[in-house]
Each structure stands twice: as C-alpha cells, then as structure tokens.
Amino acid sequence: MNSRPAAASLDQWILQQIYQATGRPPIRLRTASGAEVAPANSPPLGEIRISDRVTLGRLILDPEIAFGDAYSSGRLEVQGDLVSMLEALAMVMPPVEQQNTWARFVSRWMSWAQADTLTGARRNIHQHYDLGNDFYRLWLDPQMIYSCAYFPSPDATLEAAQEAKMEHICRKLRLRPGERVADIGSGWGTLALHMAARHGVHVSGFNISREQIAAARQRADKMGLSGRVEFIEADYRDIRGQFDAFVSVGMLEHVGRPYLKDMGRAIHRMLDTSGRGLLHFIGRNHREPMSPWIRKRIFPGTYLPTVREVLESLEPGDFSVLDVENLRPHYARTLEHWLERFEESAGVVAGQFGPEFVRTWRLYLASAIAGFRTGRLQLFQVLFARGGWHDYPWTRAHLYEAGVHEEGRPSKPQPH
Amino acid sequence: MNSRPAAASLDQWILQQIYQATGRPPIRLRTASGAEVAPANSPPLGEIRISDRVTLGRLILDPEIAFGDAYSSGRLEVQGDLVSMLEALAMVMPPVEQQNTWARFVSRWMSWAQADTLTGARRNIHQHYDLGNDFYRLWLDPQMIYSCAYFPSPDATLEAAQEAKMEHICRKLRLRPGERVADIGSGWGTLALHMAARHGVHVSGFNISREQIAAARQRADKMGLSGRVEFIEADYRDIRGQFDAFVSVGMLEHVGRPYLKDMGRAIHRMLDTSGRGLLHFIGRNHREPMSPWIRKRIFPGTYLPTVREVLESLEPGDFSVLDVENLRPHYARTLEHWLERFEESAGVVAGQFGPEFVRTWRLYLASAIAGFRTGRLQLFQVLFARGGWHDYPWTRAHLYEAGVHEEGRPSKPQPH
Fold it and tell me: Is there a contact between B375 and A387 if contact means CB atoms under 8 Å apart?
C-alpha cells in the first residue's frame, strides 16, 4: 500500500530535477504515475506527459537526446502546440555545453564518432540525404529545394520563394553567360539547372549523395542541359579545376568544425583571380555544438558555424567580404511550409517508414522552426570575392529591382 | 676624377636594391647623381626622383616611412600621376611584416609607443583631429563629415553622398522617434544632429577630440537641438548608460587591435535586450599592420581590423550579425573629392602650415585612394542586433526605396 505513493514521490522528485535542468520552462510536466510540475506564475503553454520511470531517468541524464528519443517512441507525449513549446524550451534551456557531465560527454563523443572525414562525411550524408527522393518529394516544393527559401514578402508561396532564393543568389554572384560555376553540395540539382538555363553558365555540381546525383542527372537530361551542367560525385576536398564563381547552399553545415579550413582551402583553389563565391548556411551567433539529438537522429556530423569562423576559413585566400545577409525569419517560414506539407503526408510517410519515423521528423522540423524563431539558429549568406573581380555593382539596389534582371530578362520563372 | 662614377655606381646599386625591395613597380627611379632603374618590359607609369644619398639609404632601411618623409620634405619628387603610381606600388610592394628587420622593428615599436590606452588614445586623436576645424573646413563637405560617403551613383556630389550615407545608416538601424542613440566618435556632430533632426531620436555623441566637441555643441545650439543631442567628452571605455541603438562611424580604426575586445564589451554594456548597432570602419581582408608612415605622420595608433576580428569582439555579447556591406569603391570616390578640394586650397594650407604639411597630406589622401582602389583597404558597415530586436525588416529592399523613408517622409535633405 505504501509503495505507490513512494514511487510517485520519487517521480515527483525526478520531475523537479528535470524541470530545473531544462531552465524552468512555462510547460507542465506530468508522469503516468501522477507526479506533476507546473510553472508557478503563469498558465502553462502546454503539457509534456512522460510514460515511465526509465524515460524519466534518461531525461535527467541527457535531456535533449532523451526528449527526442522518447518523443519519437511515444514514451513522451506533447499536449499543446509543439512549435510554441519548443520555442519556450529553446529560450530557457541551457546549451549542451552547460548541461551535466554525461550529456557533455555524449555530445563530444558524437563529434568524434561522426567526424566529417572523407569516409565519415559520406556515411553522414548518406544517412540523411539517401532516404529516398520519393520521401522528400512528399513535402518539399516540386523543384526539390531542401534549403532556406527567400520570401520577397512573408505571404509568398514556397514555390515562388524558392525561385526567388535562386535568383537572389544569382544576382549577388552576377553570373555572366559562358562563365564556369562550381556548385558544392548541389542537392537534386535545381540551383545548378536554374543557373545554366537562366544565366547561360556552365555548372559543375558536386555532391556525395548518390541518390541525389542520379536524380539530378536525370533532370539535366530531361531539360536538355546535360551539355552545360554536369553532376559529379566528389567530396569538396577532391575537387580540382578552376571556376569563375563558387556557390554552396546548405552544405557548409555538413563540413564540420575541424574541416572548415579545408573548405576554405578548397574555395581558394577553385577560384581564379577574378573569382567570387557565395556561402548560404545555417549558422550561430557564437560557437556552440549542434543539438545532440539532431546529430544522433537527423544530421550526423553537423556543425553550425559562426560568420566569424567562416571568415576565418576564408582569410588565407585573401578574399574580400562583400555582403553578409541574415535570412533567419525566412528559414522559419520555409520550415513552416515544410512541416505543413509533411503533416499532410504523415499517413503516407507512416506507411512507408512507420509512425516513429513520422514523430522523429515532426520533432526535427518543429524544433528547427523554434530554433530560427528564437535565434538559436541563424541563416547567413556570405558573398566574397578576389581582388580581381571588378564587376561588383556600385550599390546593392540591383538585388531589389522588381521584375527584371539587370540583363533585361523577366524575373518570373521560365518553364523548364 | 674617379669618385663621381664610383658614387653614381654605388647609387645605382642602392637604387637596384630599392627597386627589388619595393616589388619592381612599373616606375622609373632616378637619383640626382644620374643613377636610374626602369621597368624592363613596359613604359614606366612615371618617375621618382631622389635627391641625395641619405634619402637613398633611408629608403633601403625603411621604404614606407622614408618614402613618405622624403616626399614631404621634397627630397623625393614624383613625376606623373601620384595616385596611379601609388596604386602600382600598393599592388607590388610587400607589406611591412614582409620587409626587412629594421622596418618590422619600427612598425612594432610604433604599435607599442602609440598604444591606444586611455591616455594614448587621447594623444593620438588630438594629433589628428585637433589640427583646427578651419583646416578641415577647407576640403571636407560643408557639413564636415570626415568618413566614407555613400554615392547612390558614382556621379553624385560629395554633399549628396554624405547625406545619403547618413540616411543609409539610419535606415539600416530603423530609428524610431524617441529612441536613445549612442554615437561613438561623433566627430563634428553631423550624424548625431541628422538623426535627431530627421528621425526624432535622442542622441548622446561621445568623442575625445576637444576641438570637435566644442564645434559640435555650437552647432547643436544653433540648430536648436541641444535638448535632444548632447556631446560628451568621454572615452568609449568610460561610457555608462543604456541605449536602443549604437552607431560608430570611422572610429573603430582608432581603437587599436589589443582593445577591440574592450570596444565589444562597451557595446555589450550600452545596448539593452532590444538594442542594435552599426559599425562603419576601414578594414582589411586579413590581419596586417597599418602603413607605418601613416601611423607616424597621420594617424598614430591606428589599426584597421578585419570583419572577422570585429565579429570576434562582438561574439561575447551574443549579437546576431544582420548585414555586412562593403563600400570600398565609395571611399575611393570620397577621397577623390577630398583630394580635389584639398588641392584647390593647397595655397591656403601652405600659408598656414607650410609646404611640407601640404605634401604630407597630399600623399596621405592620394595613398588612401590607391589603397581603396587596389583593395589594400576596405570599407565595411556591420549591422548587428540583440535577439530581442524584432523590428528588422523582411528584406533589405527598404534601403533602396527611392525618395521616401519608410515613415513616408521625403528622403531629400531638410534644411537644418
């Protein structure tokens, strides 16, 4: 008769510890055994229900990984708006480097185990990007662009915003017909094909995701662009050849902190004396490891650099920084679109990959929205150039001229 | 009879050494004794005439300082377009850290002797900015803005471009009536007065140049803005109080490398949780000391930071980088205007300060033009904010809307 209250009061104690360790979020925590902790001064945003003591113990030991895994397995349920609750958590929860010894150890061990060496990077990229093109087709835009869009206004469609993002990048780089462009981490090839079709450049797209390369080559064939766009399975460290322009969208995150200088060296080698380049990446305000759960389940080997670290890697190449733009709210908006589409296809995804996979991906997309909304995540575009590039315009007004490119072509997407 | 040819051939040998050490510029070097070195494969851009052996010896020992001092004293004359020849030199001449031991030693000794401590900074600033407001009035625009202008088009007047620069900064900061702004290094007060008059903010201008402060206060009185603009004689390290926005134009160059982190800390203290700031400064692509002659004769204690170093100093404040813009060609254009006006007043300046002073300042302005044209110098505007600032617009298009501010006011200067 006495054991149940004792169990409940142990759970209550553990719950209190968890509540403290996560920074006292405005959320009610509850266990199946009846323990409960709630914010003292305000109504909670929602409720987190934890089904069992093992999960409770794991939450104490390594809050981020345990939360993610328990959410995925269903041993932890969230009642209320998931994104808002994750936002609240993002605002109060200490970063992993300020968590307990075990959590810090796991985070560091993962950095080592998932290191983005030549073989490690292939394994890491394969795990995420080779889930099958059909899966991504369910919730990305039809052109399959898996990076932050650029919304000329917040109510633009995702399709228009992805098109606008590509044009924004092309305008920044001021591509000229006949130029050679290296696109590192070329995904399903959309940007490479866009640049070739709309700006008349020759593009070499580099990627280490086999599934993406195959799909991109098919698209180039179908669009009759195989002569001007090639997709090459190669690590950035192995690229030889020189280019007029370098572009990399959503790939720097996968380079890993110890290898940023290698990336800088690769860019240095690739660009000739009148070259310029653009890096588009998720970054941070200060040095901090990526969420351990995201690294464990979603993006192994990921490190989100600061602008400072990126400039440090570029410095030996004597590049001039020309333009840095922060598009943080645009990624929150992009992810809102993706999550909405993902939820619409949740049944299909569950049928293919199971309900646990659906919950894992829901949590990933929702926590990314929360990260961008709260500023734990930032989205940077960094434009840089060699001293010999003289085509940089007098002001940036040309980026904002509506309707026409500088070349006088319409900016509305051409069918291709 | 033999001594003259021997003397000439020694000069010839020294001249050869100088030609090598300066990177074989496309310039003819000639001595009064008849020695001559000229580029082998192309007609020279112009000629440098050196009057005596002592100057020759100094040029070997410390090329930059000797060149500047000999040009000032008239022991070295330049035939041809001074700016073009300095451009050519800037492109081939090794930086001081790759020059001989003596030149490196002098450069480092100066860094130490001119350190921007609390008292050192006052001495350094006094030496340049307290030359007398009348002197600067001769060749700056009537509003006395001594920093890079922003030319909406290259043929804009200097006056319009300085006005446009102030508005460009105000738009980036999105000033709202009633907000408190700290302007660090407020010069003759023009930006502070502009912000108060045109954007209705309260400005505290901080400066350690006594002459500038006095002139700025007079202007505030005259414009009836003393109630909303105060000019305070204080070092950035001593500023207390919190502000909504921070701005510093052309002051970071005087902070000195060892003190950049102090500047970062000062900004951190000054800005509250919804604060934002803008740094406008001459910078570099990579870490490198400022020209020793410029530090000796023009700007003691100056260090031109890289964007990376600036971001490093801001990082502990957990600021988000929002926008970095490179306005390098705009400073070349600004300096062309200044040099032209300076030459028009050269007679007046010579009457007041002597012909040597005129040559010194001509060389300073001309070598700055060369530095910006060749990319040895860069001009950066860095916009950053606390996470709690939510007024950052969806895109940067608002910076380029012609004719109207977002508030619907005309962007043409109002008389004040």
Answer: yes
